[in-house]
């Protein structure tokens, strides 16, 4: 069973403390992890409702962990927050099951909105069981553009949001 807390996986102590303070001020119970190993243990122990996940951690790239998280905890909201803000990385994170992708420095109001949306939906796989696939002719640029929201509420700071999908037929 998924709990109510948020797991914050960030190797930089100052960034982790800043995110934790902000999320706590919003009323979230926050558990921090500095490494992939700590994060894996925290997920098993606390069963957080959502996870904010830095990609470049001292003991590995958490991009490889996203499919396992999605498979084991389909209702968990997964938001990637990273300094690696290129389009292929964003597309790959989304393809592997992340709900949102944001680059540092993070706009905290956008984070608040994306976290609330992800928690309301219950993670990407409850909204739709399979990540969207771009056609081979689309390539990474068009595939990434498919994830960028338009109009009111569109993200401004290098974030990518998974669009709502139709239920399976």
Approximate strand percentage: 15-25%
Gyration radius over CA: 15 Å
Q: Which CATH first-tier class would you pick?
A: Alpha Beta
Report the strand count.
8
What does this structure look like?
The protein has 169 residues and is α/β, with parallel strands linked by helices. It has a single domain (6-161), classed as Response regulator (Rossmann fold). The chain has seven helices and eight strands. The protein has a six-stranded mixed beta sheet with strand order 2-1-3-6-7-8, sandwiched between helices. It is globular. The chain starts with 5 loop residues before the first strand and ends in an 8-residue tail after the last strand. Residues 124-169 have low confidence and may be disordered.
Give keywords.
169 residues, alpha/beta, Rossmann fold, 6-stranded mixed β-sheet, two-stranded antiparallel ribbon, 8 strands, disordered C terminus
